[in-house]
Design brief:
The protein is mainly alpha-helical and 287 residues long. Helix content is 79%, strand content 0%. It is built from 12 helices and no strands. Helix 5 runs antiparallel to helix 11. The two termini are 21 Å apart.
Length: 287
């Protein structure tokens, strides 16, 4: 359970870092660029086998790594923005409930079995996001708080479905870490290009708070993946149970932290959404 616990804590730290960066007024794009530098270096440094750039270039999964890298950069930015605007709890639930989309993709594309539990879980996942973002009489604060979590839910789900497709057909278990590290590098290159062309103020990259925040974010970003892979391999539990415990704990921990440390409001409708989200995760992973 050690690896699973570390994966849960790493994922939670991602959302906390985004929230704290808002209070420190750190540039979100530059923070994410530094994050992908750290994540890429960690990924390649712990990859157990030798490889060359040619190994990656000749890999059948490279086009998928590029596509996923583009999506990762875009939606990681939106997750950061949503965490700052909509809150830790809402954003976490939106990103974790996106698991419903790859489940639906697997049912439709890979003809995986469709049960009453899965149907109920899919419906619960979709409704839970809308219930969690509901804020009565809060229209004056803009539509971003409502729209961003929904976009994250859909977009992250699409990215995860693409990863599932690539892993099923092209990515061997032994190259999962190399694939993931390549995704980080693609996101890093695109982030640097955007920063160089549109952000300017390059001096910000050497500011200590930004560097520390980016390194913490990148380390957590990599570790959430690495420890999850380790948990799947060494926990002796079914993968569905591992994913279920992981998502349930991240959602619960993020909601608790958001409520007690960042004073994020939870009304009765939001609470019903949180309960529905937990139910959805349970139904989609355990049945």
């Amino acid at each position: 359970m050690l690896y699973l616990t570390l994966s849960i804590l790493s994922s939670t730290i991602i959302f906390l870092t985004f929230k704290i960066s808002e209070h420190l007024k750190l540039n979100l794009v530059k923070l994410i660029v530094v994050n992908y530098v750290a994540a890429s270096l960690l990924g390649f440094s712990v990859y157990p086998a030798s490889f060359t750039p040619g190994t990656i270039i000749s890999s059948a999964w490279l086009p998928f790594a590029i596509m996923v890298g583009v999506l990762f950069l875009f939606f990681f930015f939106l997750i950061g923005k949503s965490t700052q605007l909509a809150g830790v709890g809402v954003t976490t639930i939106a990103s974790k409930m996106s698991m419903a989309i790859p489940v639906l993709f697997s049912i439709l594309y890979f003809s995986e079995g469709l049960t009453l539990f899965k149907v109920t879980g899919l419906i619960a996942a979709f409704f839970s996001v809308f219930l969690c973002i509901y804020q009565p009489g809060n229209h004056s604060q803009g539509k971003a708080k409502l729209i961003l979590p929904i976009i994250i839910f859909a977009g992250t789900g699409i990215a995860d479905s693409l990863i599932k497709y690539a892993q099923h057909f092209y990515v061997k278990e032994s190259t999962t870490l190399l694939f993931s590290s390549t995704v980080f590098v693609v996101a890093l290159i695109l982030g640097l290009l955007y920063s160089l062309l549109f952000e300017r103020k390059y001096i910000e990259y050497i500011k200590i708070p930004l560097l520390v925040g980016g390194i913490v974010l990148g380390t957590a970003n990599f570790c959430s993946l690495y420890f999850m892979v380790q948990a799947l391999e060494k926990s002796q539990l079914d993968s569905s149970i591992v994913f279920g415990i992981n998502n349930l704990c991240i959602v619960a921990l993020s909601v608790i932290i958001g409520y007690f440390f960042f004073f994020e409001k939870i009304n009765r409708v939001n609470l019903s959404g949180i309960i529905l989200a937990i139910l959805a995760i349970t139904l989609l992973t355990c049945f």
